[in-house]
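If you are new to this repository, start here. Below is one unmodified record pulled from the training split, so you can see the exact layout before writing a loader.
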Amino acid sequence: MTELPHLFAGLVALAIAAVALFAAKRILVHLENATIVSTAPEDFALKNQGLAFQRAAADAANVLPIYGSSELLVPASPYRGNIFFRTAPTGFQLSPVGGGGTTPLIILQKVGALGSELRGKKIAISLSPNWFFATKPGWRAYAGNFSSVAATEMVFGSALDFDLKREIASRMLECPSTLEQRPLLNFALRRLASGGWRDRILFRAVWPAGKAQSLLLELQDHLTALHYIRYRLKSAPQLHSEMIDWSQLVAKASKTKPSDAGRIENASAFDRQIPPGSRDAAFKNGINRSPAWVDLELLLRALASARAQPLILSMPVPGEFYDHAGVSRSARDDYYTKMRALVQRYHFPVVEFQEHDEDTPFLIRHASHLTAKGWAYYDRTLDDFFHGRLPRS
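And here is the target side for that same chain:
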């Protein structure tokens, strides 16, 4: 009988601790939401690696999250989306999430982790065409962008069904280096990938431990976000509306000299001319065999499961560069056709800027990065999408 008071006291202590943690989380989430005007337009590692600021952006009515790679971060042009929309001139801010070498499989894990928080939320996904030309995945870049908190929440969360998780797990296991220091996640992914009834039972058996780990990572993420807000938060921009003449803005941006203009003008001086179309077969083989298409379809399925409202953007192929490299326009059109067909199967809007394939000032020539002109077109498309207009390219 003497054990009962001790048991009761222990249960009371656990209940108090649970209430305290719940209250602390609510306070931290409130702080993250209250500072979204400052954090939304910024690009920093914590936003990319954690989920706290991504959730705050998903909760904000006047913020449009955009997921992509390094094209979201460079160059430092006033037309770059997060800079251009910083003061919400047309009623919203753009919140970039991404880093150099980000892949569709990384974006997929973030979407799967956010899950129901994206229900009915407009988000944009920016794709790099070169992802879909390589026959081998860039696992080094994938590992550099891997987020333990996103992967764990996706695996042990309830946003995605078992079959979708199984296919995602199979892809994630192809990069074992990201799982070497994460034994529980590694074990769960192997059980998911197998899909057998014994493995399903084992996955359910470790689910409570995985969920507890996910909650701990989430709390750590919120505490790190608190540190950022206290010591590194930039002052909030003064929001103000403007009347944007998009035709005039695009025309003005088009006159801005690209940062690699000298290399474009002198390309023939240092590049060996390759016979036109001589590399079409190899290029098409890369498109047909690239595993990025598998990851993109998994991402589209996750977006559909979350009932998000995405806009899929693809930068154009740098046509002038590929013309010079022996890849014809007709071969490059295979990419646009395949991209459009895949996305439209899920009834999502897609803009691939195909008509800018040979528009040299649209892209920085040797990288999948937008120039001022390219960003002006992206900005107009994003604005159309946010305000419910049919996106233009």
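Two things worth knowing about this chain: Confidence is low (pLDDT under 50) at residues 262-270. The beta strands are 63-68, 93-98, 122-127, 309-314, 350-351, 363-364, 369-370.
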